[in-house]
Amino acid sequence: MEVKKKGSFIGLIPFLVFIGFYLGSGIILDSKGVELAFYQLPAPVAIFPGIVVAFLLFKGNIKEKFETFLDGCGHQDIITMCIIYLLAGGFAVVSKAMGGVDSTVNLGLTYVPSHYIAPGLFIIAGFISTATGTSVGSIVSLAPIAVGLAEKSGVPMALVLASLMGGAMFGDNLSIISDTTIAATRTQGVEMKDKFKVNIKIAAPAAILTLILLIIFGKPDIAPEAGIYTFNIIKVLPYIFVLVLSLVGINVFVVLTAGIVFSGAIGLFYGDFTMLGYAKEIYNGFTGMTEIFLLSLLTGGLAALVTKAGGVEWIMEVIQKRIKGRRSAQFGIGLLVTLTDAAVANNTVAIIINGPIAKQISDKYDIDPKRTASILDIFSCIAQGAIPYGAQMLIMLSFTGGQVSPFDVIPLLWYQMILAIFTIIYIFYNKKEA
């Protein structure tokens, strides 16, 4: 018989040290009026003290701890994400160098009124993410364009990026081919279509209200000057190409590699760069992702150490003690997956970790498993779309060149906030069948 691992608050301390360094330095520097305060301390450096603390606090010899750390760094999900970072950076830089971003932005400005850019991005991101099952893919495809549109339209960049994030997480939560949907439904033993029916009742009203707010408040601070925006439709094609391949369901590595080749061919044809210049632009794209690449590796290693030391288990134990009835049980499940996502920065992993315990809680308090699956997915996506060190946020902001910090975007994540409110209302509507 397997002995249940006991949780330990000590297991969370290294992660709290990381958060303390990362947020604390930004808050202190911001209070002193330092520009781009939250970018002054590189995140991979901020996480390093947490790793050191983990090695000092946790039981076991150095070899065991290091093996656990390396297992986390080398986890398939982490390495996959890191390769996506590199390819996304290469595609973005090559496409920009050959004029793709400028042409795409000018095309958007020509046909989309500036006050509809934010809601338009929300809809497009939601469609792509729903169709492909990945919020990361949606953000990779649209973030460079979103940044360009914000710069030229006069719409606040933080608001444009928040709308992009909201749409991406809307689709990730609803898509029947999303990893989060698969994990949530499998752990609760329900059909994807049934979980979708519950989700759509909550997510659709939240999305509609978000769109209304974006239409009202997504107007530019200063109206852009009237004029004719020039664009070359050929240079827009790589973005369309990448989106179409993604929607068809082609592997993301193939999609991004093909995008790099396509953009490079156009750039070479129009003389935007030489063959050697093309190679250098790809490398510039790779190196532009260095910070997020390192942070993802180190976060994966730290998460493995924290999990092995019982940090995540401690969170579960604390929340379970406070469950008194069906409503509090549903809130408990939501809080469990939210805090776990904050600890491991991966919504699919957070669902997988909490799925079995959520199933036990559901059975004990007679909660419809469709509701449980939806609560797991919704709260994990809310958390993942809001934490400043999540892959989605880091990738999106990497295209801004340091113009925007996570804490500029987080207060404008209206969809996540509204979705949380609607989900709480849904839980209070304590009907046995969803």
Overall description:
There is one protein chain. The chain has 434 residues and is an all-alpha fold. It has one domain (75-428). Helices cover 75% and strands 0% of the residues. It has helices at 13-31, 43-57, 62-73, 76-97, 100-111, 117-132, 135-153, 157-174, 179-188, 192-217, 233-248, 252-269, 275-287, 290-308, 311-320, 326-344, 347-364, 369-384, 391-398, 406-409, 414-428. α5 packs across α7, α6 (117-132) runs antiparallel to α10 (192-217) and α9 (179-188) runs parallel beside α17 (347-364). The radius of gyration is 22 Å and the shape is globular.
Largest sheet: none
Residue share in helix: over 70%
Instruction: Output the structural class.
Output: mainly alpha
How many helices? The count is: 21
Distance N to C terminus: 36 Å
Rg is 22 Å
The global form is: globular
Low-confidence stretches: none
Order of helices and strands: HHHHHHHHHHHHHHHHHHHHH
Number of individual domains: 1
What is the arithmetic mean of pLDDT?
A: 83
What portion of residues belong to β-strands?
under 5%
Number of strands: 0
Brief characterization of the structure:
Helix 9 runs parallel beside helix 17 (347-364). This protein has one domain (75-428).
What's the topology here?
Elements: H1 13-31, H2 43-57, H3 62-73, H4 76-97, H5 100-111, H6 117-132, H7 135-153, H8 157-174, H9 179-188, H10 192-217, H11 233-248, H12 252-269, H13 275-287, H14 290-308, H15 311-320, H16 326-344, H17 347-364, H18 369-384, H19 391-398, H20 406-409, H21 414-428
